[in-house]
Amino acid sequence: MERQKSFSELIKSESPVLVDFSAEWCGPCKMMAPILEELKGILGDKAVIIKIDVDKSPAAAAAYNIQGVPTLILFKNGEIKWRQSGVQQANYLKKIIEQNT
Prior knowledge:
The chain is built from four helices and four strands; from the N terminus they run H-E-H-E-H-E-E-H. By secondary structure, it is α+β, with helices and mostly antiparallel strands. The model has no long low-confidence stretch (mean pLDDT about 95).
């Protein structure tokens, strides 16, 4: 059985990794869930999408200076390629990811 990769291993991937920093209590974060599902359907395995709950992972939130949720950060090879707070549409995110593939 493959062990689960750590966050730092995941973001060092050569494929783009979109991280959704969110929280249970956040209304706009709930709006992102179906958008990210749609995006996953569009992109397939071209990118990895992971969700991080800032309340359950305060160290990760602090490491990336997350002030508001949702905040989306696109990583590739461990580097931040793009960052934006607020609800984003699937087509816009697809374009950002494709520019960094």
